[in-house]
Amino acid sequence: MLNTLHQWLAKIPLSEQWIFTLLLFPFVWLVKEIWLYAHFKSHPDWDLEHKRRALVVSRNVSLIAILLGLLMVWGSQIQTFALSMVALAAATVVATKELIMCLSGSLLRFVTRQYSVGDYIEIAHIRGRVVDINLFNTLMMQIVDNPLIGHLSGRTVSFPNSLLLSQTVHRDHILGQYVVHTFEIPVPIHLDSDAIVPKLHAVLDEWCAPYTPEIIQYFEAVQVQQLFFTPAARTRINRVPHDDKTYKLVVRFAAPITQRLDIQQAVLDEFIRLQYRLLLETQHNPYHE
Asked: Is the pLDDT of residue 141 over 80?
């Protein structure tokens, strides 16, 4: 009988897979209807909720039966198609990997608000002020390479947003219009720090004193409103050992962001004058300690 069925199917101008597919749907529907009819007839006292539950079960079982039947009939074709789709997906991911990473980095920046236009940032040893942001890269006006000079160089540099997924972003002013600025000054080991630090402190206090009360009040307001730990606003100069030839002075102060470079330059100018005078004294008195 099975051979006769195959011979009959072979005479139809359709493949056996299509014929089984076309017959599968009415067959499953017919079985479902017969089962429901028999079930309801054997339980005439069922209420609407029980009948609805039986209807849902029969519908879900029918759907599973159809899916299993299609899987059995079209198994080899589905497997070939799935492999092709996997290969296509893999090729697409490889070809667009950098693009996807850039979009992911852009999404990360938007969600975490790492920086925006106008911010001074440093990433992957690139320092500058952000002038443009799009979905794929960030454009910055580059800062002069010397770490003690914060002026813009006039050159632009862009980096892909994918760097945000793997590199640390340093942002200078997270406190709005004010900034806590830190820089280092290398000093020859034979120069007395006690002759340098007090005078540099005097320069810092002269420049920063007019802004200090306002900055302290602003930092306290930020801490209360945003639950954000703010640094102290007072000026500091720390002495740090470096090597057998130099030590370093770490200068830290809080100021309006528009004034930080002027204050830094004023401190550097004073240090250069002090260093010049101290070196002259050392030359005139080689036994000076």
From this structure: yes
Q: Which domain holds residue 62?
A: 15-98
Structure tokens at 67: 């899916």
- pLDDT tens digit string along 25-57? 888 888 888 888 887 788 777 776 677 667 777
> How many independent structural domains does the chain possess?
3
Closest CA to 260 of 272, 251, 273: 251
Asked if residue 9 belongs to a domain, the reply is no
Q: Answer yes or no: pTM beyond 0.85.
A: no
Domain boundary among 41, 65, 98: 98
